[in-house]
Amino acid sequence: MIMRLFSKPSPKTFSLLSIGQRGVGKTVFLAGSYAELQGDDRSDHPQSSWFECQDSEVQSNLDKILYHVQQTGLYPPATIKITNFNFSLKHHALRGIKTLCNFRWWDIPGESCNLRNPDFQELVLNSHGCCVFINAQALVHDSDYAHTLEDIFNQVIAIASLIGQHRLNYAFALILTKCDALASGPATQLQLEQNLQPLTMRLDALNANYKYFYSAIPIVSISGTSMLNARGAADPLLWLLSELNKHHRFQPDRTLASSLTQTVFAPPLFPPHVQRSLLTLTLITLGLLGVVMLFLFAIGYSITNPIQVPSQEQPSRL
After folding, report:
1. How crowded is the C-beta side of 77, counted as CA atoms within 13 Å?
2. What are the tens digits of pLDDT across the range 81-138?
3. Whole-angstrom Cα distance, residue 107 to residue 274?
4. How far apart are CA 291 and CA 110, in angstroms?
5. Which ranges does the record mark as transmembrane (predicted)?
6. C-alpha distances in Å from residue 47, one per residue of 56, 188, 285
7. C-alpha pair distances (Å), 229 with each of 134, 237, 297
8. pTM for this structure?
9. Among 57, 133, 247, 308, which residue carries the largest CB count within 10 Å?
10. Domain 11-302 has CATH 3.40.50.920
C-alpha cells in the first residue's frame, strides 16, 4: 500500500479528435509534426522530445506519406477512411529516456466529420482533446469559405458547451493551415483573427480552453530531394498534450463520455447504452443550437460592423 502511494503515475493515454474539411491538411500536419520531432540518437543534435510510433503499421503509414512527398514533390492525397495513429511522446531526461504520455490520433476524412455520423459520434465521446483545422488561405481570400465552416464551428461549439456545463478538462487546438501561402505580417494575422470570431467569441463565452496556431508546412527541395519543411509544426500537439497531461496526470483515465456520464447520470439512472444515446442526442441538439447562435452572431456583427466603402476623395491604403 505504501509503495503504491509513493509510486510515480504511469503515462496517460489520450485520444485526440481531429475536425476539418477534406483537403484542409490534417494528414500533412500529422506527418510534418512527426518528421519535425522524429528522434534520432545518431544525430549530433537529437530532439529533446519526439513522437515514437507504437507499432509497425503506424510507422509504415507515416513512411508511405513521407515517401510520397519525396518521390512526387506533392502533398499526399486526401484521407479516404478513418485511420488510427498511436504514438508515445518521448523526452530526454537526466536519467535517460522518459515517456511523457501516449496518444491516439484519429485521422478522419472531412466528409465523416459530422455529429450525425455514428462513427464520428463515437470518436467525439471517446476523446480527451481536439484539433480543429481551418484553411487560412481560404479564410482570407475566399469570401464564401466562412459559410462552409459553419458546420465545423457548430460541432466545436456543441462539444465545448457540454464541457463548459459540466466543468470538464478538455482542450482545443485551433490550427490555421497553409499559412505559407499567405503574406506574413500583422495585417494578415488580424484578418485571420477577425474571421475566426464567430468561433472564438463563442468559445470565450463558454470559458473553453483553446489556443490557435499558424501552421506552415511547405514542400522544399534539398539536393534534389523533396521533403516537408516543418518548423514549429508540432507546437499544437505539444501544447495540447501538455494541457491534458497537466489536468489528467493524477486522475483516472476519463474520456468525454465517461466524465459526462459521471457528472450527468451519477448515481446511474439509465443503463450504459441509454446513457450513450442521450449523450449523442445532447451533442446533436447543441450542434443545432449552434446554428442559431452563429446566425444571430452574424446578424449582430453585420449591424455593429457595417462595410465601409472608401470615398473617391480619399485614396485607399493597404
Report:
1. 2
2. 888 899 999 988 777 888 999 999 988 888 888 877 888 888 888 889 999 999 999 9
3. 28
4. 19
5. 278-303
6. 21, 32, 45
7. 20, 17, 38
8. 0.78
9. 133
10. no
